[in-house]
Design goal:
The protein has 136 residues and is of the alpha+beta class. The chain contains two helices and five strands.
C-alpha cells in the first residue's frame, strides 16, 4: 500500500505542474493581449439609449453631419474623465449604418452586447469614440 502511494505522488505533481503552467501561460497571453489593445476598452451590458443629433446641433443646417450616441446599462465611465457616459459614432464612419442598425436591434431585444470604445474623445469632446460593437 505504501508503494502505491509513492508511485501516485509523482503523477500528482506532474498534473499540478501542468495545471500551474496552463494558468501561467493564460496569464501571459492575457497580459500580451491587453498591450495589443492598449487604448481600447470593452464594456458589456445592454443598450439603454440611442440618441441621434447633428454635429453642430445648436444651429440647424442641411449640410451638417450626424452623430449617434450609445448609452449602456451598467453605465460607461465618464468619457475622457469629465464627459458624458456614452460612446459616439460619426456618420462619416464606414460602419455607421451597420452600428446604428445593430444598436437599435440590441436595444429593442435588450440583448447583452460588448461595446468597445477608444480612449479618445475626438468626435465629441465629451464622449468616447466608437471602437466596435459585438452582439453576443
Amino acid at each position: 500500500m505504501f508503494y502505491a502511494g509513492v508511485l501516485f505522488l509523482p503523477v500528482l505533481h506532474v498534473e499540478l505542474l501542468e495545471y500551474l503552467l496552463r494558468i501561467l501561460i493564460s496569464l501571459l497571453l492575457l497580459q500580451i493581449s491587453s498591450y495589443s489593445f492598449a487604448g481600447n476598452t470593452n464594456h458589456v451590458g445592454v443598450i439603454k439609449e440611442v440618441i441621434f443629433f447633428a454635429k453642430n446641433w445648436g444651429a440647424y443646417s442641411n449640410n451638417d453631419g450626424a452623430v449617434a450616441a450609445i448609452y449602456m446599462e451598467p453605465a460607461l465611465p465618464r468619457a475622457c474623465g469629465t464627459g458624458d457616459y456614452r460612446v459616439v459614432i460619426d456618420v462619416d464612419h464606414p460602419l455607421y449604418q451597420s452600428v446604428v442598425s445593430a444598436a437599435l436591434a440590441a436595444k429593442v431585444s435588450q440583448m447583452p452586447v460588448r461595446l468597445n470604445y477608444l480612449s479618445t474623445c475626438s468626435v465629441r469632446g465629451n464622449s468616447w469614440d466608437f471602437g466596435y460593437l459585438h452582439l453576443k
